[in-house]
Specification:
Layout (H helix, E strand, L loop, with lengths): L3 E5 L4 H12 L3 E6 L24 E5 L6 H10 L3 E4 L6 H6 L1 H22 L4 E7 L21 H20 L3 E6 L2 E2 L8 H13 L6 E3 L5 E2 L2 E2 H12 L6 E4 L5 E2 H11 L8 E3 L17 H7 L7 H15 L7 H25 L9
The structure holds NADP nicotinamide-adenine-dinucleotide phosphate (NAP) and ligand G4F.
Amino acid sequence: MGKRAIVTGITGQDGSYLAELLLSKGYEVHGVIRRASTFNTQRIDHIYQDPNNPEARLFLHHGDLCSTEWILNLIYNLLPDELYHLAAQSHVRVSFDMPEYTGDVTGLGTTRLLEAIRRGSPKTRFYQASSSEMFGSAIPPQSETTAFQPRSPYAAAKVYAYWMARNYREAYGLFASNGILFNHESPRRGETFVTRKITRGIAAILAGQQGKIFLGNLEASRDWGYAPEYVEAMWRMLQLDSGDDIVVGTGEAHTVKEFAQEAFAYAGLDWHNHVAVSERYIRPLEVDCLIADTRKAREKLGWEPQIGLRELVAIMVDADLESAGLQAPGRGRAILEEKLGHWNRWHNSVRKVMHAVQGSASQH
Ligand code: NAP
Ligand code: G4F
């Protein structure tokens, strides 16, 4: 009998990759989705299983971090071995427009889960999706001992959630871990985060649908990695002997301008002709530079990223060109096979298991 895990935020970028990873490891996976009037399960449709099938190992439940009613029942009934808490209002710019909501979902949501675990399933191992954004204006490189200096309502909410996870670990002995993850991207990245906005923009430009993309601060630097590698780090964190707080990133940073230059050049375009700056995307406060000090992740998790910025760009541009029906240069695909062949094999093995089961998660 495999382990049982709950994943909040399963419809998001990380949740979808993590669900694939857990299924490939034989877990029974319970994902929490929000009720929506339109389909919001595109990222997990390919792994959806009909719950009536006795072989099913993926189950979806409706829930929202703003309330506790669903959490209590789910945790009491399932007594999961592991709970990966990935759901959040995760957009930094949006958090300036919706600070109270962001505090409720991204901050208090974590407390609601921790309290349900404490009361109903204290052996459950808890993963909190903490963020490098918490470091804010702290001088890079940032490590587990760097003091947080949050620069947005999102970051402040994540700092609160981080400390709640630590408090529940220290006060009640729960296995609660903070993965302090630096930016990680992929073809499944939300369309309004800057990397995906650029790679989708390139596809739209090449398809003749638009001439330019409008961006905000081009000078901010981020430590960008490839998302599927990061969900492996999350899983490893919950396999340790005890809860801990660990920084996960590549240790290299690049500016938004460098990302754009690289992506346009990869697609055979000159970025100068297609990128314009718009005040609309400048934030009230900015985080200038995030660079991970990755020593603890290497030592405790044996985790080492394989994909750097150039590879990430190739993977993302290829994917967006292909989905627009355009010819892609193809280096991204080759990189995935060469460097992450094992991930592709998991992905395929999960696909085979799912093949017997028809339908879409949206039918839930
Ligand atoms: P994402 O793509 O934005 O996914 C967020 C998920 O949370 C979605 O499944 C979303 O559901 C769900 N969600 C939002 N509000 C909710 C609510 N009120 N109740 C229940 N579910 C809700 O985020 P991601 O990039 O996968 O990131 C996963 C987690 O890691 C987030 O907590 C993020 O803050 C954190 N993080 C991300 C990064 C990064 O670079 N990606 C770095 C550090 C930390 P819908 O699909 O219905 O919107
Ligand atoms: O892609 P971004 O929106 O990501 P940001 O703000 O770094 O947040 C992401 O990473 C965090 C980890 O550090 C996560 F916790 C968080 O959930 C999220 O996944 O912006 C990156 C940089 C910023 O400096 C922003 O000002 O790009 C700059 N930028 C410039 N033009 C833009 C744009 N960002 C967006 N979203 N859109 C633009 O047009």
